[in-house]
Records
---
Amino acid sequence: MPGAPEQLLSLQSVGFAHPARRGAPVQALSEVSLHARTGELLAVVGPSGCGKSTLLELICALHTPDQGTITAPPAVLMPQRDLLLAWLSALDNVALPLRIAGLGRAQARARARELFGEVGLDGFQQAHPAELSGGMRQRVAFLRTLLCGKPLLCLDEPFGALDAITRAEMQEWLAATLARERRTVVLVTHDVEEAILLADRVAVLSPRPGRVVASVEVELERPRNRTDAALSALREHALGLLASEGQA
Amino acid sequence: MSARLRAGLPAIALALGLLAAWELYVDLAGIGEQLLPAPHAVAQALWDSAGLLWHNFTVTAGEVLLGLALALSAGLALAVAIHLSPLLRRALYPLAVGSQAVPIPVVGVLLVFWWGFGIFPKLVVIALICFFPVVVATVDGLAAVDPEQPKLLRTLDASRWQAFRFAELPAALPAAISGARIALTIGVIGAFIAETTTPTSGPYPGLGREILSDVNFQTARAYAGSAILIVFAIACFYALSGAERKLAPWHTRARGETP
């Protein structure tokens, strides 16, 4: 596409099969083409088991695709479960990427501490994961992802395990946090409303083997309101695409 | 009354009840003191031979603690080696299992030939008897890290060493402590085996050897020595539980109190 802004992430006809211990390999993705520009939030929605998590792992270079090509900058994964380290305080969990990058404990903590106040986590620095609610744990996990400093964030159903009220809160929190800390994000979710609320573009995946069946541009002003008529219309449109694919 | 004392009350009550039943049984059945001394006779022997028993106890306690330290370091090192290298796992694991079947007197003579009549051969015997539970528990603990965790750490650019240091090692700590707890409880009987299979030149040979030489003609004193070992084992066990609360507070919090 001549003249188009540069793509930070692009997948061309990517296919991937999980090697099976017995029998034929399981085809997880086939002919997936996606792209995301710098600073964009790309949401990928699809039914359970359509290979969404595999897609993120491919982007994070945890696997090599069987077919097609992936051009991606260094990417960091935020897995579905928060995977916070139980023996570290919230502050030290957030500081973990800096420790791994070679910073000393004091320096890493100082950098992590700066983030806490900005995102409504002040006062929870010394709490251990077991003492935090599900929403709080996801916030800590997201800060850890953010502090890693990589240009591309891969979020795997970050709010999937939360109750509806907390999830709504967290979606607004994520939107606000990303408005301040602009990053390129690939967000995998099965929640169409979440996708439309947060994303610049929504890619709809088919059931396994996943492939992109539709791409919906979300050109709504931010901050977005989930009761907004235009948002509802887009959600119905995307749900229709998903449903027609489920029957096919 | 402190909370800790109250927690120990059922055990103390049960022990007192058992002692009373024992005393009654010896009285009523008319069992000779050479066969089964009554608790009061054991207490008398403990009082009469307090100095002798104490000096021997300090020898044995030193052996147990140093032997366990050796067992822990060897067990942890082996567990890490087995965890990090599939080749070492295949090479070492079967031998470690086999080592538990070695009848100690067979190697006792050799150990004395190598290292003499001092404490070291005894530490080796204790370590040989105690290292295995540490290895098994720690290997399992190291492998029990969430399977997603390595993926996350890789995208954070963690090296193999960093994944080990930040995730696997702390995650395995509670399991390693559980292994140490088992090692500790068999450490005391390990010291008994060590003392009775490798001779000593010192003035006090240790409680194990003392008990063995008392058991036929000074039975009450043998029982008194055994009582000391039993109390020592229990004390060590609870000391370790206290250490666990300090070392792995996240674990004790999640699981509740230790027994």
---
Amino acid sequence: MSTTELLVPLHVKYIQSLGENKDDLAYHLTAHLRLNAIYWGLTALCIMGHQDALDREEMIKFVDDCWDDEIGGYAAHPGHDAHLLSTLSAIQILTTQDALEHVKVDRVVLFILSLQQPDGSVAGDQWGEIDTRFLYCAVQALSLLGRLDEFNKEKAVAYLRRCRNFDGGFGSSPGGESHAAQGNLHEVDEQMLGWWLAERQVPNGGFNGRPEKLEDVCYSFWVLSVLAILRKMTWIDSEKLTTFILSAQDPEGGGIADRPGDMVDVFHTHFGVAGLSLLGYPGLNDLDPVYCMPAELIKRKGLTKAWLALPRRDAIGGKPDHE
Amino acid sequence: MVSNHNVKRTRVSPEALEAKRLKELSKVKEYLALNDDLLARKRSKTYRKEDFEATTRILSINPEFYTAWNYRREIFLNGLFPASTPAQIDEFLSSDLDMTMAQLQRHPKVYWIWNHRRWCLEHVPEGPGEDGDSREGWRRDNWNKEMFVAEKMLDRDPRNFHAWNYRRYIVASWPSIRTKDDELKYTKKKIQSNFSNFSAWHQRSKVLGAMWEVTPATRTEQDEGMSSHHTYSRFWLIILEEFEFVKSALWTDPGDQSAWIYHRWLIGEGDDLVVLQREIDVIEELLVEEPDSKWCLDSLVHFQRLLLQHKDESSVDVSSIQQRCAFALTKLEAIDPKRNQRYQDIKLQL
């Protein structure tokens, strides 16, 4: 099969098969990412219009089993410790499945708020790793729960300012190098950041995460999401990027890899599909670039921001309309 | 798999797949036994030496198992440390630093390993002596060793942002380990061995920025104990050398974006008209040699637009600058079609 179009049935089958690999050592070695993986798989399915391909009840039950009652958050796997990353994944999954009543909201909010440090930064858990990614996770989780007003935004913004670099990008901590995966909250120099992001596109159409590094499908989403928020999606070559993402598909087993010819995984499958949705690829559902969740869902919750993705194309080969 | 990076796809026959499955079965069984044993110990909240060893066994197979790292630290805090002298605690932590060093060789980008090192460092007790310098002995030794490790990791992969972040963390925690001048020398060495190493350029901008407070645009260096005249001339010397350094990088490979991005930082807001004009001349000189250099043209547009801020100066001819920008942007649209919408948008703003 050729990789000039998105192989939806194969990807659906690939995502369905992920839970059936229990004889692979790799499956067990990645238990610490299980809840994240379920969020990636579910969101990719929603964007491809196949939300029901994974069993809803079974999924909700698994999320419930990941609850860490001692800490008051969700772990990535039953029996593991709660962490902010998996707590966000749990809230995203339950929001998408319209099952937020399973969340002990007050306790989760308390857990998330307890992770904010006096300087405004946010830790991933009680062991204290600090990263701007965690600040994003905290804001998104609280926002989905309707409790963002309890978060100290002034301090958080002051902290983010300290992570900002002259090139318009953000590092993972003050002094850190700008990284395309760190850029989701903002108060930004739009011209400068737009320039830096547009220059992440390399000659084969893919995006890298930092200057003079290799391209990778997951940056399609990291870079595109911020460009959509800046309403500057037209500053890159969307056709070339579309071709690049499609070429990283596995035309036999399904799934999308970091680049053409590599092993696929659910992380890159999700971010590849998410990128294609923002690029207006035909037949896909809209993705909200701020939450990286189905746009319709975020709209229903009244949380939609003023982002702008490329218009959905009708047919394969149709050119995106640069309006 | 959940997340692969840079692993080539291979086709295997169903027979080979079945053979692999059978071979892996015993490994899976063994791993699950370790896993279940560890989680049971954790649930029972025991913090003995044998529990500690159970974490070592599973982490040596799977360093991403963050819950096992958490349990390991709980064992230190609740079981091993309370029963130990400061010297023994120092030894425990040193040996954990050695263990994670070996793991970093195999897994240089696993966050949890880097995190555990930080935790260890922050728990090194005071000692061996009780006063002054000797009280800091263990800590100093460990921080020094840590700098060595971070720099070894950067020798292996000069773009590893974990190692760069970690290195910044060491300098921030133990400032005497590297002076600003040491940092300038280190970043220069890294850049000279590879001009594409933007991580090193970035670090250089942070060091110089701290020396000048914030950005070069504000230009207020604070070197205490120096006469203002001395400070002033030293400051200009550093700046001049820096422009010469970046110029040599630009001429070496005008297609590499690292030095161009740094050059843009160095000029900043372009408040100094003389410097701005001089650097525009430098780029125009390079453009004669490389008429189709995208980065030459893009930088010319950026810096000439900064010139427009000085439109009250007699040397700044607004309409000629606008014309030159428009000309460069038209050329950019042709040689860099991927981003032509950006060039068109800028043209509209001229």
